[in-house]
Design brief:
The complex is a heterodimer of chains A (347) and B (345). With 347 residues, chain A is α/β, with parallel strands linked by helices. Chain A is 43% helix and 20% strand. Chain A has helices spanning 9-18, 46-60, 127-133, 144-154, 175-181, 183-196, 220-237, 240-246, 249-253, 259-274, 276-288, 290-294, 319-331, 334-341, and strands at residues 2-6, 22-23, 31-34, 37-41, 66-75, 85-95, 98-99, 104-105, 115-120, 139-141, 158-167, 298-301, 310-313. In chain A, helix 1 packs across helix 6, helix 10 crosses helix 11 (276-288) and helix 11 (276-288) runs antiparallel to helix 14. The radius of gyration of chain A is 31 Å and the shape is elongated. The model of chain A has no long low-confidence stretch (mean pLDDT 90). With 345 residues, chain B is an alpha/beta fold. Chain B is globular, with a radius of gyration of 20 Å. Classes of the chains: A alpha/beta (347), B alpha/beta (345). The complex binds iron/sulfur cluster. The site of iron/sulfur cluster (SF4) has 9 residues of chain B, from strand 7.
């Protein structure tokens, strides 16, 4: 569900009426249930907005899927038209006379009409304020950055739409006083605009939850590699479905070995699919170390084959098993292995 | 091209600034105290460069040249990177600048005289027989911005007097008009980064096509300017051998192999920070359709056998095409890689 936020009740009035608002029993006032979600009147300023939006996002949890801030802003840039409504592209802030380093791109970042907005904790009306702030943004408000920062914390898509009510530093009325006086007019304009706006696509769930059942067991680093491989393969093949068409999961899952070893094999197959050269490297190494595996000795290479080392692991029970191991070691060509690790793939 | 130009107060009235402002008439201009009042003062998303790019003009304070990372460039002597400009109008998906600065805005430093004294000092410190290289193009494409022709003129004059130093102008641009008007210097090399055209379309947005880059390189060579080529970054694709063979054919139809000062080879690699930025900025790029590992130098790239195979393969193609082996060098690749971990996405 969406959470609509407004600084003033006046700006929200039309939404409250048309969307059949009902007060929510919540530790802070100003929160309403509306037809398609919730509406919050934050009050003016960065601190009010931060506290109240954070409380609501924390309190309502997963019920909130995106946050939309609607309100007015003063134009810093002459190319903005009075009375027009612009999506915000990036939110900046100035606090205690200095620009905040952190900025927050909104979900409207790609919109060609979108403009940058700087939020301040004072009423910007003076020409020198306008001259300073225009170095960073096209319009100025009192809340957007704060709400954007909370959305970033909760990983929620954030939209902000600003109706340009005046030009800062041009001797026009204080936009925040105007907001209170003309709240009803602004609310009507914002409501009309909101009705025409395309609804945001539903929030994406995590692309590939690891749900391969009990026959696989993932260590933390295997989980990491699995995610990376799946992401690369999604780009390469277009969808997760295409990946599973090319991997015989049932064959791997029914192998007679530990769940962790099955996962290792699955990761190898995914890696081969993503990078066919990996398949060549693995196959050649398996061939070159076959005498060792036949003698019950496993050979492990450095991760990413980043050096030439090989770690061998074998169990010697008697003179015969020692003899077989020595024979196997003699049969392995270290030169060929090193040539392979140094890029002689012959493909 | 620019949404706004910021100029430092102390150089506001200089001829160099005027030359640039004349070129970008109609763009709003703001006067600022220092570049740092605006540049990187806030974190500006990298992809804003597509629609809202500012130009900042000022004087570079502090270090003006920086020693290059290990295994960078040709020859034994020291290599320095010129910090005369930051950022770039092109948009390569693999560009390391996206994780390097906190803003995509273009910065040009116009206090050329201060650069010249630092370059001269570094050259004087060379030991006998040593030669220094200075590279323009690490923090910005060295020719992409036509704004300051006086900068190139200044560098040509300076290096004309430095017999033990060479300058590399590294570019993907075809903006060679100013260069063509200057007297060629044996120690100033224009080097072009080339990739197969399909790669350019996929990964090097907003850059001139391969044919235009090769044409520019040929024109400069015929004009007597030393030229060089970088096949860097090399990005693996199934048809890589065929693509680079065709690229070499096209290149060597335009210039004889003996006219190439050098050719460098480097496999795609990123710092962790740049890798995160690429994933954020280009989440669907085919560049990411590969498995990357973190190497001993903390650089993220393909695994070592794949990297070395790619370098060997392309080097062999170059040799087969008639390029002298002594002119080919591997960029940023050490034989002593050790210890990696898989990279988390
Ligand atoms: S041309 Fe060079 S500096 Fe410019 S975007 Fe591409 S890689 Fe970066």
């Amino acid at each position: 569900m969406i959470l609509l936020t407004f600084a003033h009740r006046g700006e929200a009035s039309r939404f409250l009426k048309k969307k059949h608002a009902r007060t929510v029993d919540f530790p802070l006032s100003g929160l309403y249930q509306i037809d398609d979600g919730f509406l919050l009147v934050t009050g003016e300023g960065l601190q009010n907005a931060t506290e109240r939006v954070a409380a609501v996002c924390g309190g309502l949890g997963e019920e909130i899927e995106s946050v939309i801030n609607l309100g007015i802003a003063g134009a810093l840039d002459d190319s903005l038209s009075l009375g027009e409504i612009y999506p915000v592209r990036v939110c900046y802030a100035e606090q205690n006379g200095s620009m905040q380093f952190r900025s927050f791109p909104t979900a409207s970042f790609e919109d060609a009409r979108a403009r940058d907005c700087v939020s301040v904790n004072y009423r910007a009306v003076e020409p020198d304020e306008a001259n300073r702030l225009i170095n960073f943004a096209s319009c100025v408000d009192r809340e957007a950055w704060a709400i954007a920062s909370v959305c970033a914390l909760f990983n929620l898509p954030f939209f902000s739409y600003k109706l340009i009510s005046d030009r800062v530093g041009k001797g026009q009325a204080d936009l925040f006083e105007a907001a209170k006086e003309q709240g009803q007019y602004y609310s009507d304009r914002l409501f009309e605009f909101f009705g025409l706006r395309q609804a945001a696509p539903p929030r994406q769930k995590e692309a590939h939850a690891i749900a391969l059942g009990e026959r696989f067991y993932f260590t933390t680093s295997q989980k990491r590699r699995y995610r990376a491989l799946m992401e690369g393969l999604r780009i390469k093949l277009g969808s997760e479905q295409e990946i599973w068409k090319r991997i015989d999961l049932e064959e791997i899952a029914s192998a007679k070995c530990s769940a962790k070893a099955r996962t290792g094999e699955l990761l190898n197959r995914l890696g081969d699919l993503l990078n066919p050269l990996n398949a060549v490297i693995r196959k050649r190494l398996a061939d070159l170390t076959k005498p060792l595996t036949d003698a019950g000795c496993s050979a492990h290479f450095a991760e990413g084959f980043q050096d030439d080392s090989i770690t061998l692991s074998a169990r010697v029970d008697n003179a015969e098993s020692l003899r077989r191991l020595v024979e196997a070691l003699n049969a392995v060509s270290l030169n060929e292995i090193h040539a392979l690790l140094n890029g002689k793939l012959d493909v | 091209m620019f949404s706004r130009i910021f100029v430092e107060q102390e150089i506001r009235d200089s001829a160099r600034v005027q030359e640039i402002l004349d070129r970008y008439q109609g763009v709003p201009v703001s006067t600022i105290e220092r570049i740092s009042d605006v540049f990187e003062r806030v974190r500006k998303p990298y992809l804003l460069k597509r629609r809202d790019l500012a130009l900042l003009l000022g004087s570079k304070k502090g270090k003006k040249i920086r020693e290059s990372p290990a295994f960078y460039g040709l020859g034994e002597g020291p290599h320095y990177l010129l910090m005369h400009a930051y950022n770039c109008i092109h948009e390569c998906a693999y560009c390391y600048l996206q994780g390097y600065f906190n803003s995509p805005d273009i910065v040009l430093f116009l206090n050329f005289e201060d650069f010249s004294s630092e370059i001269e000092t570094a050259t004087r410190a060379l030991s006998n027989g040593e030669r220094a290289w200075f590279h323009a193009g690490e923090y910005s494409d060295s020719l992409a911005l036509p704004a300051v022709s006086s900068g190139l003129e200044f560098l040509f004059e300076l290096f004309g007097n430095l017999s033990r130093a060479s300058l590399e102008l590294r570019t993907k641009s075809t903006n060679i008009k100013t260069l063509l008007g200057l007297e060629p210097r044996p120690n100033i090399v224009a080097s072009f980064t080339l990739s197969p055209q399909k790669w350019i379309e996929q990964y090097e947005l907003n850059t001139p096509p391969l044919a235009s880059r090769i044409r520019a390189l040929g024109t400069l060579a015929r004009g007597g300017h030393p030229v060089a080529v970088h096949f860097d970054p090399i990005i693996y694709q199934r048809d890589i051998e065929h693509a680079y063979r065709a690229l070499l054919k096209e290149l060597l139809e335009s210039i004889s192999p003996s006219k190439l000062e050098y050719l460098s080879l480097g496999v795609v690699r990123f710092s962790r920070q740049v890798f995160q930025q690429i994933k954020a900025n280009y989440p669907d790029s085919k560049l990411l359709a590969a498995e990357f590992v973190k190497g001993f130098d903390n650089k993220i790239s393909y695994n070592r056998p794949t990297r070395l195979w790619l370098l060997n393969k392309i080097k062999t193609l170059c040799l087969e095409a008639g390029i002298d082996e002594r002119r080919i060098y591997l960029c940023m690749e050490s034989a002593q890689d050790a210890g990696v971990e898989f990279v988390d996405r």
